[in-house]
Every structure is written in C-alpha cells, then in structure tokens.
What does this fold into?
Amino acid sequence: MHHWSDYLTCNESINPAPSIFIGIKMKRTDQLHELIKSLSQTEKRYFKMFSNMRGKGGTNYLNLFEAIERMKVYDEGRLKEKFKGSTLSKHLPSEKNYLYHLILKSLRAYHSDATKNNELSNLLQSIEILFDKGMFTHCLKLLAKARKLAYRYEKHTLLLDILKWEQKITRARFDLDNLEENVDETLAEEHRILSDLQAIAQYKISFYKLTTFIDNRGIARSESELQRLDNIMSGDFIRSIENATSYEGRIYYYLSWADYHYARGNLKEDYKISQELVNFIESKPELLQQDKRPHINGLSYLAIACTRIGMFDEARKALNDLKK
It folds into this structure.
C-alpha cells in the first residue's frame, strides 16, 4: 500500500516506507507489558482506583501492574525475583493473563461514556427500558438529546435508529395526528441520511480499489493501468467534493484522490491533497477528539508525500505531530 493504515480498520498491511522511517529494530514484546505501556496517565490512574476497589486481591495485581509499568524493557526473570516465594511468582503466566484482562475490563469501564457511540448506545438502551415501562414522555426527552448528539457527531446509522424510535413512540401514544403530519418529514430525513451513507459507501469502494491497485502494482506503468485508475475515479460521487457532505465521506474523498495521484505518479498533487486532508480534519476538533485515527492516517499520508518530493523539513514536522 502506498500509505499506512486504513483509518477505520487500522489493520491493513503496510509496505515499507521511505528511508526516513527506517532504522527501528523490532523486538519481541510481552503483550501485558505492551498494553500497560500503551495506557495514558488517566487510564493508569483509573486502573489503580479500579484495582483498589477489589480488595486484597486487587492490591496484589496492582503490585504486579506497577512492577511491569516501571520496566523500560520487559524482563520476566526480574519479575520472578521480585515476587519470589509469592503466588504471583509461582503462577506468573496465569496471573499475568488475569491482570491483562483486568486492565481491559477497567478500560471498558473508563471508556464506557468516553465515545459518542457508547453514549448514544446507552441513551437508546435507556429509551428502550423506559418505553417498556410506558414512560413515553421520558423517552421523548432522551430522544431529543440523542438526536442532537447524533447530528453533531454525524452518527448516521444511530440517527436511523432514533427516527425509528420516534415513530414507534408516536404510535404507542396513539398520537395519530402527529404521526400523519410528520411522516413526510421523517421520510425526507431518512432519505438524506441514507444518501450520506450511500455517498460514504461509494467513496470507500473507490478507496479500496485504489489501495488494492497500489498493493499489487505500485505506480501505474502502462496505458491500460492508467486507464484503470481513471475508471476507478470516474463515478459522479468521487468527481466532485460537493458530494462529500459528511465528515467521513470527505475523508475518504481526500484519501482516494491522494492515492490516485500517487499511483499516477503525480507526487506534487498527492502532497497537495494530503495537506488538504490534514487541514480538513484539524478544522473539525470535536470529531478529531472522538477518533484520532483519521488524523494519524492523514499525517502519515502527508509525511510520506513530503518525503517523496524531498520536502524533508515538512515531513519531520508531520512526524512530530504524529508523536503528539
């Protein structure tokens, strides 16, 4: 692949990057050590409180956590020596496995309200509970909050669920006049949401076709390969940025055009589009805060694009931004 990971899946294969990225020797890592080192300071603090609530057993695992946390490089021998004679030392593999899953459990608790998807899912679950109790006015109050949140953070599929709940509650209240009055408005709203989802799907198709082309061939080397690239980018959706009305759609629009220009050998255009991608993401701080992967991927695109055209100072700046 020309660039690094797909910003949604983050698990695509990665081809060797230019020489500016080479030079780090990979070492075998311990999964528990790696997980602990990945935690932010707030996540660590939360785990320590979470662990203390579990009593004496939690304290033992907290001791193991802190011992591993202090290790720059994982050393199991040192760990066994530190806890020599204790249950931790005698059953270290199983104790480490338990601690690993305990950390994941604390992360789930910590992040349960941290993302808007989780927040909206919790609201919809509360709405369902209140609906079953016949508390329809309560449901509508939560639905109004959920609707506002879903539009603010462009949660299209959850918006469709919210619209269904609104109709369901209107029917349950036998509010037939209101139902008849709002049915056209609801259908129009559903159509707008589905149009956004369709556009995103079209951009994704173009993006995945381009990355597959680049994985297999790299830069186009024949007229037939150039024509194939042009065919991928010939759809109505992908030709105009005006069609990319959603945040996710706009990101895939930029990713697709950056890959297209790279595969055609238009490296300056690749750089220009990559810079536009980063600028766009940084202009949406609330959405960036919710999911940093698009920003990481955009900066990766920009760093590699800069390197390919010899703009090494700008490439280093993008890499420094990545480190942040």
